[in-house]
Amino acid sequence: MTTLSDVIEALEAAYPPELAMDWDAVGLVCGDPSEPVSRVLFAVDPTPDTVDEAITGGAQLLVTHHPLLLRGVHGVGTDTPKGAMLHKLIRAGVGLFTAHTNADVADPGVSDALAGALGLTVEGPLEPLGTPPAEALDKIVTFVPVGPAIAAVHDALAGAGAGRFGNYSHCSFATAGTGQFLPLDGAVPAIGRVGKLERVAETRLEMVLPRSRRRAVVAALRAAHPYEEPAFDLVEMAPLPTARGLGRVGSLASPEPFSAFTERVAAALPDTAWGVRGAGDPDREIRRVAVCGGAGDSALGTAAKAGVDAFVTADLRHHPASEHELAGAGPHGPAPALVDVAHWASEWPWCAQAADVVRSALGGSVGTTVSRRRTDPWTTAARSSAEPNPEASP
């Protein structure tokens, strides 16, 4: 029997909750992890429509990208829209699970699904996530006189948490050199005497440590080192880029005009009242593209530096888009053309990706369905035929 816990395990392996932004609310919203699950519905939004679809379709779990309870609430009474949905789910025995910003930066994640829908071959993330903060590293470099002190300092640093990698401890690198110092009045040198320039055969000792152990390692060095004032360097290691991160950069199999590329985007995504808008020369050749599922105008600057021909995202605002166009060509080439799509449409391809995650992990024991209900909040659109009135006040 497959349980809700089994489905959660599969989803959290693909979209680790620790990748979520600290302001986000991801994971199980309601449901009993021990209850059996035979069908799961996937949708972008938890709305009355998708809740009804899950219940009438016989699903025991609704998985959405957007959280229902993103901001703090003081109650979930049925006299509130969100409370009413929660009560309806609970009464029907249907759980609710959310993967939001953790799915945005996962590998693969929301932007991989968008890139795949557009026919792009993905090269990597637009904004790499880098090493998680909990794994941030320092490197300590110190200089120890040749002799028994080397082993004592090495052991003290290792005991404080430096030099550990996986199943190995005491990892270090040592090189020989010559240290020099001149003890001044008031000094109590372990080697040499006041007023005389001293040169000493020393070993340069290097060890990596978790940043969280910085204070303990420096204290251990000072306690174990024979010198009154031990010399050392403490260097923050740069985070290592990974395949995780916001957005994706990819390439089309062959270049095409921007007008045709805009049509490609419209054909690949579900229809919305918002539609698809392009900003750029219709004849510009498009080959290399950046995408960001959801609101991505915060990544406009990164896209411009990525050397891409076009940037596809949602919720682009007037002023950032205008300023982006005004910037023109920069050190990384011409500013990319912009394609603005509906937020919901840009994230909808992820639903199929998440469904594949569950199918791959649990096989035929769980049926999966992707909701085709359009939960985009914009429902109608009209085009004006009126010309701008130059006499109208701004």
TrEMBL record:
Residues 365-394 are annotated as: Disordered. Keywords: Metal-binding. Pfam families: DUF34_NIF3. Residues 377-387 have a biased composition (Polar residues). The keyword Metal-binding applies. Homohexamer. Belongs to the GTP cyclohydrolase I type 2/NIF3 family. This is GTP cyclohydrolase 1 type 2 homolog. It comes from Pseudonocardia nematodicida.
